[in-house]
Every structure is written in C-alpha cells, then in structure tokens.
C-alpha cells in the first residue's frame, strides 16, 4: 500500500514528521482529505483540526491557526504559525 510523507510544521518547530495513509484538514473552502496518489495541491487552511493517520496504525491530531497545505508526489506539508497537539 502506498503512503504519504507528512511534515506538520509550526513557526518554531517541526511538530510531526512521518509516514501516513491519510491526512484530513480544514481548508478555507471546506474539509479536505488527502490519500496517496492525490493530485498536486496548494491550499490555504483555516483554523481547525488536522488529523494524520500513520502507517503504523496510530492517529495524530492537532489544532492549528491559519496556514497552508501542499501536496506534491505523495509529500504533504502543513505549515501554521501555531500548532497545538491534541493527540499524539
């Protein structure tokens, strides 16, 4: 099964980096789900929750303020000024 390489980054630190099967976030246009093979994308995120389902079966959740999300070649980058981990 394919996977995503994910970087969740706050202004001052890398919050989470790893392999995942799925990433969910809230863009300014609505909820967004990213799976392996997703088309390239760059979108603005609104304040809300980000959920990452790791390849090891774990789930990681965080709340972010505004930021952006990019997808390219199964690499997801999420950048926000503030990130609060709600579930590791």
UniProtKB/TrEMBL annotation:
GO CC annotation, single: proton-transporting ATP synthase complex
**InterPro entries per record:** ATP_synth_F1_dsu/esu, ATP_synth_F1_dsu/esu_N, ATPsynth_dsu/esu_N
One Pfam entry name:
ATP-synt_DE_N
Tell me which domain of life the UniProt entry assigns to the organism this sequence originates from.
Bacteria
Q: Lyase as a keyword? A: no
Subcellular location(s) per record? Cell membrane
Task: Note the CDD domains from the entry.
Answer: F1-ATPase_delta
Spans traversing the lipid bilayer: none
Q: How does it sit in the membrane?
A: Peripheral membrane protein
Q: Which UniProt keywords apply?
A: ATP synthesis, Cell membrane, CF(1), Hydrogen ion transport, Ion transport, Membrane, Transport
Q: Which part of the chain is the ATP synthase F1 complex delta/epsilon subunit N-terminal domain?
A: 4-82
Return the Gene3D superfamilies for the record: F0F1 ATP synthase delta/epsilon subunit, N-terminal
* Primary localisation category: membrane
Output the Gene Ontology terms for molecular function.
ATP binding; proton-transporting ATP synthase activity, rotational mechanism
Keyword set includes Transferase: no
What is this protein for, i.e. what is its function? Produces ATP from ADP in the presence of a proton gradient across the membrane.
Q: Which NCBIfam families match?
A: ATP_synt_epsi (TIGR01216), PRK13442.1 (NF009977)
Q: Which PANTHER family match?
A: ATP SYNTHASE DELTA/EPSILON CHAIN (PTHR13822), ATP SYNTHASE EPSILON CHAIN, CHLOROPLASTIC (PTHR13822:SF10)
SUBUNIT field: F-type ATPases have 2 components, CF(1) - the catalytic core - and CF(0) - the membrane proton channel. CF(1) has five subunits: alpha(3), beta(3), gamma(1), delta(1), epsilon(1). CF(0) has three main subunits: a, b and c.
Protein family: Belongs to the ATPase epsilon chain family.
Name the chain's protein: ATP synthase epsilon chain
Q: What is the lineage of its organism?
A: Bacteria, Bacillati, Actinomycetota, Actinomycetes, Micrococcales
Name the encoding gene, please.
atpC
């Amino acid at each position: 099964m394919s996977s995503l390489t994910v970087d969740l980054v706050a202004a001052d630190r890398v919050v989470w980096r790893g392999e995942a099967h799925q990433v969910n976030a809230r863009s300014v246009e609505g909820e967004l789900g990213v799976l392996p093979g997703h088309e390239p994308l760059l979108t603005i995120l609104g304040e809300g929750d980000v959920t990452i389902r790791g390849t090891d079966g774990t789930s990681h959740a965080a709340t972010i303020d505004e930021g952006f999300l990019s997808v390219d070649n199964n690499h997801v980058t999420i950048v926000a000024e503030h990130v609060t981990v709600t579930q590791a």
